[in-house]
Inverse folding.
C-alpha cells in the first residue's frame, strides 16, 4: 500500500486492486464512527457519452434512478440489511458522481463485506424499476416549488446549451418514464465497473484487516470492461444572455447572475492551484466579507438571501451570485459594473484568505465523516491532499488575477424573477 | 479526560477536555427567565451584536479577523427550554499546535467573542438607531422569504398554530412585533450582560490554567446577580377538546404538505420523557420507522414522512408530503399506524432496533467536538449537569413495550394542518 501524509498525525493508505478499484484507507484511532464511501463516476451529466467507438444516450435522471435501484437490488434493500445491524446507509447523486455510503460504530468488517457483496451483483427487474419510478416522480415534484432551484436551472440552461451541464439530476416526470431495465443495465455495464469507482474508508480501522477483507470479497472478482465511458462537453451558451420572468404570485423578486470561466487560461497551474485561484478570487470580490457586498448592502440592493457559488469541473467552470432584491434590474446592472471594475487585490486580505483555507482544511480531520467526504471530493477533483497546504501557501496574487481574463460580456448571463 | 466545572468571578465555567480534535470551541451562554414580550428582542440582538461592533466597525473587518484566525467560525443563537431562555455565542478555532508558529489563537478567539458581546456600537447609552433599524428591516425580509419558501412557510404556519402566544418558540413572534424599539432592544441587551447568569464552555485540547487566567482577567469586573427564580423545565399545556382541521392554500405550491399535531405533557428528565423519545423513533423518527416503512415504502402514499417530538411545545408532530389525490388516504393510513401502536402492535425487535439507533446517535454526537459541546450546553441549561452518556443509555434500556403503549395512548390529536395548492380536489 502506498502511504501518504496530509498532516503530521494524519496518514492515508492507498492501493489499486487488479480490477482497477482504487481503495483509500484513513485510520483514525480514538473515534467511534467508521465511515465508508463507494464513489462511482456517473452522475447527472452522464447523458451522452462515448464508449469505445460508439456513442450512447441516456434519459435525464438515469444516474439518480440507478442509485435508487441499487438500494433495492431485487428486493434486498440495503437499508433494511444495514439497519438490522444498527448501521446507517444512504446514497446521493450529484452532477458527476454517485455515492453510496454507510456509517457504523460496530461490526465494520462484516458490514463492509455485505456492502461490497451488494454492489458485486445487481439484479434489475421491471417490478423494482416501476416502484422506484413512482417514488422518484414524487421526489421531483417536491422541489418544483423552490424558486432558487428554478432560477439556477434557468441560468445554467442559458449559459451552456449542452444539457449534460444543467439537466435536472433527478430528471423530469417525462424523462423518468423513458428509463427502463435496458437503459439501466447498459449504464451498469458501462459505468459501474471497478476502475470507474473509488472506495474510501475512515475511522478506527486496522488497515491490513480492511484491505484483506476487500481482496477476499466478491467485489474483487469483478472484472473491468475494455473501455471507460468518456464524456465530452460543448461549452457554447445561448444567444440570449439575459432572461426576465414575471409572476404576480411571487412574494419576492430575485436575480441570479452567472459568469463563465475559461479554464484553458489556467493550464500551467496544478489542479489545486487552479481551483484555489478561482475560488479565492471570487471570495475576495463577492463574499460577505468583500467591499462589493458591503456596497450592495448599503445601497439596499441585496438582503440576507445573498449568496455566491463557484462550480469547477475538469472541463468547465462558472461563478454565480444571487439575491432577493427590491430592484433586481438595478442589482444586475451594478453587479456587471462591479465585474468590469474590480480593483487590485489587497495583499493583507489575500494572506487572511490563505490562512482561512488552511484552517478549514485542518478542521476536516475532526471527524471520520468529514474527512471521508473531503477525501472523496478531492479524489473526484484530482486534488493532491498531501500537498494541499503547500499549494495554498504557494498561491500568489498573479494566479488569482488570471480570472480577470474571463470577465467579458460574452461570458455574462442573468435571470431575473420579478413580480411584474 | 474528565469534564470539570468551577466558578471564576461568579461565572460558571465548564471545561470539556478532549485531545483528539484539531479544533477548540469556546461558548458564552447568557441565561435568564423567558419573557414572551421580549423574545423578538433576544433574537434581534444576535444580528445587532454581530453586525454593529465598535472594534469590527464593518462586516469586512469582522470577517477579515475571522480569516486571520485561520478561518475561525463564529455562531450565535437563542435557545429556549421550560421558562429559561439562553443567548449563546460560540467560536470554533484551530488548535495552534497544528500550525508552524505559535500565535496565541486561543487568547485571540476569546478576545473576539468578548468584543462581539461587550462592545457593540452605542450612542448615548443606546444601541445605535442604524443597528436597530437594519435589524428590524431584515426581520421584514425574513417574513417575505418565509412566504416564498413553501416548505418553510408550511412549517412556520403550523408551529404558529400550535404555539402558545404567551410562550414563544418561534421567531419572529408576530404578536409583539410592533413593540420592538431601539429602547426595548437596548434594554434587553443591558439585561443580558448585567443580569443574566453567564456560563462559559471550553472544549478541546487546551491549557486549563491559561484559560482560568484569561477568564479571570477579562471578567474581573463581573458581578453575579442572585437569581432566586425557581426555573421550570417544562411547560404543561391544556389538552385539546377537539381536533382542529385547518387548510391554507397557495398558488405556487406543487405538493401537499400536511402536519398532524398530537398534544402530550411529559416532564423533562423523567422516565416518560425517555419513553416518548423512543416512541418517536419507532413511529417516524428513522428510515426503519413504522410510518416510513408503511406509508412511504409499502403503500407509496407519500414522498416523505417523519415524526418529531417538540418538548417546548408539548407536541409530537407528523409531517407528510404528498400529491393532492393521495392526501386523505395518507392521513387516514398515518392515523391507523398510530392506532396500531396504541393497540400494542410493536415488536420487541422494533424496540431493540430503535434503542440501538437512539444510543448510536448519542454516541455519534458526542464523538464530534461541536456535538459534545452542544449536548453539554443543553444539559447545563436544563439541569446544570454534564451530559452523562451512561446514564442516558441506562434510561433508554429501561424502557419496555408497556411503557411505549401507555405513552402512545396519551397522545391527544390536536390539529390537522394542510398546506395545499389552490384548487386542490380534496380541499
Amino acid at each position: 500500500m502506498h502511504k501518504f501524509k496530509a498532516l503530521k498525525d494524519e496518514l492515508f493508505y492507498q492501493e489499486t486492486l487488479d480490477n482497477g478499484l482504487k481503495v483509500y484507507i484513513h485510520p483514525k484511532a480514538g473515534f467511534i464512527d467508521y465511515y465508508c464511501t463507494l464513489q462511482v463516476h456517473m452522475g447527472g451529466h452522464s447523458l451522452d457519452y462515448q464508449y469505445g467507438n460508439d456513442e450512447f444516450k441516456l434519459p435525464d435522471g438515469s444516474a439518480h434512478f440507478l442509485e435508487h435501484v441499487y438500494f433495492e437490488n431485487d428486493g434486498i434493500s440495503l437499508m433494511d440489511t444495514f439497519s438490522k445491524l444498527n448501521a446507517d446507509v444512504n446514497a446521493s447523486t450529484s452532477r458527476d458522481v454517485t455515492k453510496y455510503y454507510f456509517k457504523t460504530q460496530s461490526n465494520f468488517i462484516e458490514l463492509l463485506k455485505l456492502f461490497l457483496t451488494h454492489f458485486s451483483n445487481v439484479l434489475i427487474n421491471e417490478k423494482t424499476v416501476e416502484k422506484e419510478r413512482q417514488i422518484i416522480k414524487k421526489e421531483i415534484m417536491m422541489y418544483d416549488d423552490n424558486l432558487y432551484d428554478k432560477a439556477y436551472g434557468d441560468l445554467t440552461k442559458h449559459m451552456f446549451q449542452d444539457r449534460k451541464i444543467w439537466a435536472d439530476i433527478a430528471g423530469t416526470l417525462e424523462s423518468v418514464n423513458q428509463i427502463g431495465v435496458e437503459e439501466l443495465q447498459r449504464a451498469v455495464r458501462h459505468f459501474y465497473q471497478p476502475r470507474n469507482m473509488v472506495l474510501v474508508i475512515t475511522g478506527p480501522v486496522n488497515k491490513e484487516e480492511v484491505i484483506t477483507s476487500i481482496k477476499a470479497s466478491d467485489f474483487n472478482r469483478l472484472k473491468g470492461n475494455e473501455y471507460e465511458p468518456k464524456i465530452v462537453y460543448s461549452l457554447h451558451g445561448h444567444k440570449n444572455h439575459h432572461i426576465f420572468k414575471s409572476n404576480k404570485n411571487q412574494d419576492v423578486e430575485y436575480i441570479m447572475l452567472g459568469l463563465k470561466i475559461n479554464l484553458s487560461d489556467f493550464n500551467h497551474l496544478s489542479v489545486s492551484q487552479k481551483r484555489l485561484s478561482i475560488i479565492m478570487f471570487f471570495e475576495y470580490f463577492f463574499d460577505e466579507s468583500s467591499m462589493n457586498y458591503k456596497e450592495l448592502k448599503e445601497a439596499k440592493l441585496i438582503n440576507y438571501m445573498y449568496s455566491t457559488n463557484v462550480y469547477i469541473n475538469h472541463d468547465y467552470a462558472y461563478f454565480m451570485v444571487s439575491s432577493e432584491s427590491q430592484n433586481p434590474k438595478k442589482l444586475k446592472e451594478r453587479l456587471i459594473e462591479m465585474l468590469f471594475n474590480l480593483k487590485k487585490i489587497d495583499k493583507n486580505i489575500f494572506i487572511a484568505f490563505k490562512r482561512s483555507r488552511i484552517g478549514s482544511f485542518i478542521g476536516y480531520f475532526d471527524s471520520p465523516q468529514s474527512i471521508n467526504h473531503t477525501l472523496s471530493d478531492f479524489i473526484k477533483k484530482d486534488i493532491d491532499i498531501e500537498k494541499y497546504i503547500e499549494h495554498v501557501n504557494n498561491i500568489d496574487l498573479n494566479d488569482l488575477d488570471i480570472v480577470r481574463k474571463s470577465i467579458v460580456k460574452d461570458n455574462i448571463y442573468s435571470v431575473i424573477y420579478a413580480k411584474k | 479526560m474528565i469534564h470539570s466545572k468551577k466558578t471564576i468571578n461568579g461565572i460558571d465555567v465548564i471545561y470539556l477536555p478532549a485531545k483528539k480534535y484539531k479544533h477548540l470551541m469556546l461558548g458564552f451562554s447568557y441565561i435568564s427567565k423567558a419573557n414572551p414580550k421580549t423574545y423578538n428582542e433576544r433574537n434581534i440582538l444576535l444580528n445587532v451584536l454581530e453586525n454593529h461592533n465598535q472594534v469590527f466597525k464593518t462586516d469586512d473587518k469582522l470577517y477579515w479577523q475571522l480569516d486571520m484566525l485561520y478561518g475561525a467560525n463564529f455562531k450565535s443563537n437563542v435557545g429556549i427550554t421550560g421558562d429559561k431562555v439562553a443567548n449563546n455565542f460560540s467560536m470554533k478555532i484551530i488548535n495552534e499546535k497544528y500550525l508552524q508558529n505559535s500565535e496565541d489563537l486561543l487568547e485571540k478567539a476569546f478576545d473576539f467573542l468578548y468584543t462581539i458581546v461587550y462592545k457593540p456600537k452605542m450612542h448615548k447609552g443606546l444601541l445605535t438607531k442604524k443597528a436597530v433599524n437594519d435589524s428590524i428591516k431584515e426581520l421584514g425580509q425574513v417574513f417575505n422569504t418565509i412566504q416564498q419558501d413553501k416548505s418553510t412557510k408550511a412549517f412556520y404556519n403550523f408551529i404558529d398554530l400550535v404555539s402558545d402566544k404567551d410562550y414563544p418558540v418561534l421567531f419572529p413572534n408576530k404578536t409583539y412585533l410592533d413593540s420592538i424599539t431601539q429602547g426595548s432592544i437596548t434594554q434587553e441587551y443591558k439585561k443580558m450582560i448585567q443580569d443574566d447568569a453567564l456560563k462559559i464552555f471550553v472544549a478541546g485540547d487546551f491549557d486549563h490554567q491559561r484559560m482560568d487566567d484569561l477568564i479571570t482577567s477579562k471578567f474581573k469586573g463581573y458581578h453575579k446577580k442572585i437569581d432566586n427564580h425557581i426555573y421550570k423545565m417544562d411547560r404543561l399545556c391544556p389538552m385539546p377538546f377537539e381536533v382542529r382541521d385547518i387548510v391554507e392554500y397557495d398558488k405556487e405550491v406543487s405538493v401537499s404538505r400536511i402536519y398532524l399535531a398530537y398534544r402530550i405533557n411529559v416532564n423533562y428528565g423523567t422516565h416518560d420523557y425517555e419513553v416518548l423519545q423512543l416512541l418517536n423513533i419507532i413511529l417516524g423518527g428513522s428510515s426503519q420507522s413504522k410510518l416510513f416503512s408503511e406509508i412511504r415504502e409499502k403503500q407509496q402514499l407519500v414522498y416523505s414522512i417523519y415524526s418529531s417530538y417538540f418538548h417546548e411545545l408539548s407536541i409530537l408532530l407528523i409531517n407528510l408530503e404528498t400529491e393532492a389525490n393521495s392526501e386523505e388516504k395518507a392521513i387516514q393510513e398515518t392515523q391507523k399506524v398510530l392506532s396500531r401502536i396504541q393497540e400494542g402492535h410493536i415488536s420487541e425487535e422494533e424496540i431493540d432496533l430503535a434503542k440501538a439507533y437512539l444510543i448510536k446517535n448519542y454516541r455519534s454526537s458526542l464523538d464530534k467536538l461541536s456535538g459534545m459541546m452542544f449536548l453539554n450546553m443543553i444539559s447545563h441549561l436544563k439541569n446544570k449537569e454534564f451530559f452523562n452518556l451512561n446514564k442516558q443509555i441506562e434510561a433508554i434500556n429501561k424502557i419496555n413495550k408497556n411503557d411505549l403503549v401507555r405513552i402512545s395512548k396519551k397522545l391527544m390529536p390536536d390539529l390537522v394542518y394542510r398546506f395545499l395548492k389552490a384548487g386542490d380536489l380534496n380541499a
Summary: The first helix of chain B runs from residue 39 to 51. Chain B touches chain A through 58 residues (CB under 8 Å). The two ends of chain B are 59 Å apart (CA to CA).
